[in-house]
Amino acid sequence: MTTIEETRRIRAAAWAADLDLDALLITSLQNVRYLTGFTGSSANLLIYSDARAVLFTDPRYTVQSKQQVNCEVTIARGPLTGAVAAEVKRKRLIKVGFEPEHINVARLEGLTKAFPAKAKLVPAPEGLIAKLRMVKDEGEVKLIRAAVDINSSALAAALKRFKVGMTETALAAEIDYQSRKLGADGPAFDTIVASGARAALPHARPGAARIGIGMLLIDMGAFKNGYASDMTRMAYVGKADAKYKRVYRAVLEAQLAGIAAVRAGASAAAVDRATRRTLKLHSLEREFVHSTGHGLGLEIHEGPRLGKSDKTKLEAGMAITIEPGVYIEGWGGIRIEDTVLVTQTGCEVLTPTPKDLLEI
Ligand code: ZN
Ligand code: ZN
Hints:
The chain has 360 residues and is an alpha+beta fold. The chain has 2 domains: 4-133, Creatine Amidinohydrolase, Chain A, domain 1; 135-349, CATH 3.90.230.10. Helices cover 36% and strands 22% of the residues. The chain has 10 helices and 19 strands. The chain has helices at residues 4-18, 29-36, 62-68, 80-90, 105-114, 128-134, 138-160, 168-181, 242-261, 268-281, and strands at residues 23-26, 44-48, 53-57, 72-75, 95-98, 120-123, 186-187, 192-195, 214-220, 222-224, 227-228, 231-237, 293-295, 302-306, 319-322, 325-328, 332-335, 338-342, 347-349. The strands form 6 sheets. Strands 4-3-2-1-5-6 form a 6-stranded mixed β-sheet, sandwiched between helices. A 3-stranded antiparallel β-sheet has the order 7-10-11. It binds zinc ion (ZN) (2 copies).
């Protein structure tokens, strides 16, 4: 039976053949994982145009690679570069493609030096495997659902332990603790907890600030079996004032407009336009300083980017976030974010956490 990883390798190999390459060298660990199932921290993968493949890793992963991988494995006694070059020489490969966005200058020079004189390294088009990864299969969707559920349960559990006067760092630590206890591999990114005017910083790092009366922004994600979730929720500590309520409703309206615009065939940019148009009705579009969302999967940020200039057509099976926000210096910021799954007719909002205005 062909495994899902083999099916993916067959597709990658077809591209290698189309590009007239003898083989494609995969250096991104996430791409290696996607194409082989290998989760070690040191690996390269060579995929031949006939879909055979060789994984290169080091002796720490002798046992693990045997358990996880169903293609040929070479355990390199020294640097992977030498092992890859030896394979290229042995198989008399001439044209080897590499992932330009996943290699640095030193590594490329090292490979070039180690390769036989006849062999040449050529850049493959950027984002070749990323394109494959954008559309999730059933197994991946299952894992994303699990990551989303853990994330929402962790927020609920952490908020139960919330006390006025707690520091942002302490609440972030509580969220991470609850998330791991619920089965997460770990946070998908550094948990953001920003209170009061600090919520105006879209990527605030939690600090020693004590959380008092006022707004509270929490942006959190969990990895489950390698797959990410992402959610932002707001809470108001105490009784929300009129301005907070007004801006919250505007952002929620924009977020719902974004969700309503999602369906297979729509462009990523059209979804971004939908949130921006709604905020414009509330004269808040200038305060929305980032894109509407992003794909997620083995990484927290993957394609497509739901921004003004992304022409990617959405496809059923893409997992993306919808997260408009409004940031006002000196006042604070409001962002609402869900993880959603693109379907043929629209989308399914995976995040179960309610979005009603929350006072705690
Ligand atoms: Zn987020
Ligand atoms: Zn996000």
